[in-house]
Each structure stands twice: as structure tokens, then as C-alpha cells.
Protein 1
Amino acid sequence: MKIISTPEKLCKGHYLLHIECAEDCLPGQFVSFKLGRFTDPLIRRPFSIFNKNGNDIEVVFKENGRVTSMLKNMTDFSDVDVSGPYGRGFTVTENENVLLIGGGVGNAPLHYLSKVLKTKNNSITFIYAARSQEFIYCGDRFCTESNEICYVTDDGSFGDKGFAADKLKSVIAKTKFSRAYICGPTIMMKSCAEILIKENIPLEVSLENYFGCGIGICSGCSVDTVDGKKRACVEGPVFDGSKLLWQYL
């Protein structure tokens, strides 16, 4: 696998990369980057798959620290090692009414999921949450892959004002869903999961953990579940949201 494009700015702090990859991949899986040949930076970084088209994988990343700042400014990727895809992806249903809830850069893996779900004759409602309008990216592409998209921003600069959980309450009051999928900040996923569990709606969540190795060796990404500790990089990053011990995340 190798990066085949320089970063394209999508919106404030968010960038798109293209990766050449002949491997099959599932929505919710991730790829792993190691920048440079030496020990600085030491730890690999995981990035969710935003889209897969033939041998082209798209990744959306947010500038949020030293490694992503380095990546944003790169023009030569010869010393970047890319591996994957890794992890457990989302369950892809058929002929169902499904709800997708994304927050910030966590919307990215849900785009690929929405695309695949649409090919399986699912009806898709997408709640796209962001801090403000300037943090919304690829809105036209999300609209194309959804039957209905609902935007909500913290400051009300685009769509409804409020948080993902606020919009979720109003959406499920009008429509019955057979399954929900969530990815975003932990506090957002927790608040949405509590609502969905109370309504007995099955849900899967993609955790945005840091993965030291990405292949289950270091166990640094372990999370607490009703079935004991699970490694997010191999038993996840997608989990049954009703089995996570949210108070420990």
C-alpha cells in the first residue's frame, strides 16, 4: 500500500489522502501509517477508511497533533509505511431502515458504510454533527449516499443548533429504525448510545482509540466490555454499543 496523492484540504483542519490498495476492505476498518524510517515519531497512527473505489482508498484525517501536522505538509511519501486494512468492521445489513450518527472526523468511516449499505437496498438516515459549518466536509457526497441527511452544529451555523443526541431524539420520535451506527467523540457516542439502548435499537459504534501497533500485540487500546477487556484494534474498532462499559471509556 502507498499514498498516491498530496493532502487535499476539505474544510478547516480536515484533509483527504488517496492510497493505492488492492486489498478488499470493510466499512469500519482502518489503515495504519508509520511516518519515517526511524523512531521519531515512534507510534503508528490509525486512520479510518472514508471510501474505497477499485484500488483507491480515501482517508480523511484531522490535523490534531504533531504526526497529522507533519502529514498535512508532506509532498514526498516514500518514507511513509502504510499497512492494512485492519480491525473488525460494521455489520452490513440488507433491506432495513438504518440510522447513522457521526460527529466531526468520525463521520468519515460512516460515509463508506453508507455507500455499501445503499447497495444492499437499505433506507439510510444520516445525522451529521459538527462544531460549526466550517468543519463540515464533503457534504455533497454524504447526501448522495443517504436517503435523508440531517445536519446539526454546536453553534447553529448550519442545520439545526445543538448536539447529535438532541437530533437523535427528534429523529427516532418520528421514524422506527432496525439498527444504528455511531462514530465520533466518546462523549457524543455515549450520549447517543444511552438513548438508543433505552429505545431497544441495536447499535454498533466505532471507537476512535489510539492504536500503538494496530495488530493486537501491545493491548494499549483495550476497552472494558461486559465480556471483559477487548482490544479495539482487533476485536474492534467496531463494537456492539450495548456491551461497552461506557463509564470507563
Protein 2
Amino acid sequence: MYIYPDNLKSKAVLWLWQLRDIGIIGFGCLVSVFALVQLGMLLPIVATALYAFLTIRFEDTSILDFIKYACAFFITKQQLYEWKLQPAVHSEPNRKQVDK
């Protein structure tokens, strides 16, 4: 008996992260520990923890993806707006008043 995932084209996920993100977080942890021990710098640990938090995946999207999409929509991608003049439309047609 074979058990297949629901979506065979989806990316590999381990716990809450994609495997690529796990590799980046692991490498970042190694560099962070080295920087803390040798140089006394705390910034790499903060950057690695922030990246780990932003790449947590829920329902195939992450906070980092949402931020990328929002920046693309509001800042980097050109928005196209078309303005046209519409002919005047009367809200009420001309009616003759009938007196009884």
C-alpha cells in the first residue's frame, strides 16, 4: 500500500518551513553562533530569528510572501488605470405629468 500526498507538485515542507528555508535558517544559525562567540555581535541572531519567523508557512503561504506581494503591488509593479469620459446618463427620463 502506497500513501501519496494530496498535491504531488507542491514543494517539500518540514515542520512549518520549506526545506530551502530550513537550510538558510541552519546556515544563519551557524554564522550567528560564530559571530556571537568570536565578535560578540548579536545582530546575526536577530536577523536569523526574524527570517525564521517570517518564513513560517500556513496554508501554502508565509508572511514573507505576503510582504513581497504587497510591496510588488504598492511599490515596484506599475499599476495601469484607464480613464474614460462616459456620455451623460439621465437618472430620470422626461415624463409628462398627467393631471386628473
